[in-house]
Each structure stands twice: as C-alpha cells, then as structure tokens.
Write a structure and sequence with these properties.
Layout: H1 2-19, E1 34-40, H2 42-45, H3 55-65, E2 71-75, H4 83-89, E3 100-104, H5 107-111, H6 116-133, E4 138-142, H7 153-168, E5 172-174, H8 197-219, H9 233-245, H10 247-269
Parallel strand pairs: 1-2, 1-3, 3-4, 4-5
Helix pairs in contact: 1-10, 3-8, 4-6, 6-7
Length: 270
C-alpha cells in the first residue's frame, strides 16, 4: 500500500510540474486555522497610526481574549483605496481559503463623486470574486455615510448602497463603521477624517459586535476538504487543457503503475 501511494503521489507531482498551479485542481489551505480577509481603505489601514493601532489588529486581540485562537486576520487595506482599485488587489489574497470577508470600501469614491451605480457594481464584483473562490465564505459589509446624508440625493443614495448589498448577498452589515467617531474632533486626527488611536478602538468595537457571533459560528465548523472545493470555470478549463496536452506522458506513467500494482498483488497472493 505504501509503494502504491508513493506512485500515485509521483503522478500528481509530475502533473504539477507540467501544468503549474492549475494541476493542483483547486487545492486550498485545509488548515484548521480560520482566515479573515479585510479589504478596505485608510480607515482600516490605520492611516497616520502605528502598526498596532488599526482596528483589524485590535480585533485580533479581542478574538484572542474571547478564546477564538484559531483565527488569523489578513489586513489587505490600502490608504486611498477605492472600489475600482479593490478588485485587482484581490487575486494576491485569494490563493488561500477565506472564511470571513470584511469589505470596507467606497468612501473615497464618494469623495471623488463616482456615480452611485458604479460604486455599487464595483462592490458587487468584489463580493462575487471572493465568493467564486470561496463559496462558503461569510461576508461582512462595513457601511459608510457622508455628512448630512439625508439632505442630498447623492449622499443619501450612497448611504443606502451598503444595506442593499448586504440584503442582496445575504451578508452581515456593520450599519456605520464610524459610529461614535465620525465628526468628533477628540476621536479623529487633525485632518478631521481619519480616526486617531482612541477612535480606532471604537471602530474595533463596532466591528466586533457584528463579527463575534459570526466568528464563533465559523470557528466550530471543520475546514472543508480542499480537494472538494471546485475550481472557477476558467481555471478548470486551463487544468483540463493541460491534462490533455500532457496526457501521453501521464498515460505511460499510469500504465506502468497498473503493471507494478498487478505484479505486487500477484506476489502477495503467491
């Protein structure tokens, strides 16, 4: 049995060498560690603060204190991040399984006057891409608002985007990430836009209220068998094409394996 397993493994190695990543057939990290991916802008990147002060770091500490030690948070946030820029930043972070995805983008788009429909479509595309690679991911959307959001059609429509997307995607919603912080000069830096260290602690609380029950639920679920996670259609086609293009070499190896296995079995009978 040990020899046969080694031979099957050797075929997999050959296929991997020939076909590169596609030969992994959608293999993912099946580690018991659960992964949270945060995709945001300067509010989540902690603009102007030390590396230990942004809310994703503070939430990591909360998870540890709550006994949720099997989680890790990847903060893929970027100062100046927009919804259009979020999508091309995703692939580098989707090579590993994502259990919880926190999306915090859009406020910079609003400052630039990007059309509401475009912001909504960009955010939906990001969610779709994450779900394509991680069908069982739990999505959390961080809602944003602009000052006087009831007094202007654009600002009001912007504030509605997040709730609408949460309902459409069966996602959890942080109603307003800056709740208790926005507009308070004592909780913001001199630019009156970015939270200071005290403000980031409140942001962490706002996130934690929504994240904690989801994390506790996700934390009790076993990691899926990596071999059973389907490839996106494009990668599946590339893997199949590679398999067919190298089939003759693989077929020879399989025939040799069959001969060796049959010989081994007959020797065992004798």
């Amino acid at each position: 049995m040990g020899n046969r397993m080694k031979q099957w493994r050797s075929i997999a190695i050959i296929l991997t060498i020939l076909c590169g990543q596609s030969a992994a057939f959608g293999a993912r990290d099946s580690s018991p560690v659960k992964r949270i991916l945060v995709l945001g802008d300067s509010l989540s990147a902690g603009f102007g603060l030390g590396s230990s002060q942004p809310w994703p770091v503070l939430v990591t500490e909360k998870m540890r204190d709550a006994g949720l030690t099997n989680f890790e948070i990847t903060n893929a946030s970027q100062t100046g991040g927009t919804t259009a820029g979020g999508l091309p930043r995703l692939p580098a972070h989707l090579n590993r399984k994502v259990d919880i995805f926190i999306l915090e983008l859009g406020i910079n788009d609003a400052f630039q006057g990007v059309p509401i429909g475009q912001i909504r479509n960009n955010l939906q595309a990001i969610i779709d891409r994450v779900k394509e690679r991680n069908p069982n991911v739990q999505v959390i959307i961080a809602g944003m608002q602009l000052p006087n959001y009831r007094e202007d059609d654009y600002v009001f429509a912007f504030g509605q985007i997040y709730g609408d997307l949460a309902a459409k995607n069966n996602a959890a919603l942080i109603p307003y990430l800056l709740e208790g912080v926005g507009g308070d000069p004592t909780l913001n830096q001199p630019d009156h836009v970015h939270p200071n260290a005290a403000g980031q602690r409140i942001l962490a609380e706002n996130v934690w209220r929504v994240l904690e029950p989801i994390a506790r639920e996700v934390g009790t679920k076993p990691s899926p068998d990596a071999s059973r996670i389907p490839l996106p259609q494009g990668e599946a086609n590339r893997a199949l094409s590679c398999l067919l293009s190298h089939w003759e070499r693989i077929e020879v190896r399989v025939e040799l394996l069959i001969v060796v296995t049959a010989t081994t079995l007959m020797s065992g009978v004798n």
